[in-house]
């Protein structure tokens, strides 16, 4: 049984778009933004200027992905990464697939000299919270809001 976690490549676009559909529509039960804009986002991230994506391939099948966006922290006055997505298909949760995707994001953040990696998860996603606790994450003191 082989597991490969690597940067997204051009030939991954179709498989990644399908995984993102599952993540957005089936897991989070949100409206699909549309094939064109999702593929455009993947293409933008392939340039590695605004962010980067990783995929997990288990026995030849794409089973997970993670997305890091690059930004700044005013409090640190340094660049940071934001892990916006960490998604693995149901049978691969709480396995090395999930751990290795997370560690790929963490390594990238460290190796490229970012000050830190941050992320959020849904308040009712207790399974993910347990995973992040296990991986050494610490819940922050800030309350997240959004609008729009």
List keywords for this structure.
Aminopeptidase; 148 residues; 4 helices; alpha+beta
Q: Work out the count of structural domains.
A: 1
- Per DSSP, the total helix count is 4
| CATH level-1 class | Alpha Beta
Give the helix/strand class. Answer: alpha+beta
Please state the second-level CATH architecture: 3-Layer(aba) Sandwich
Strand order, sheet with most strands = 1-2-3-4-5
Structure description:
The chain has 148 residues and is α+β, with helices and mostly antiparallel strands. 35% of the residues lie in helices and 27% in strands. It is built from four helices and five strands, in the order βααβββαβα. It has a five-stranded mixed sheet with strand order 1-2-3-4-5, sandwiched between helices. It is globular. It starts with a strand and ends in a 14-residue tail after the last helix. The model has no long low-confidence stretch (mean pLDDT 94).
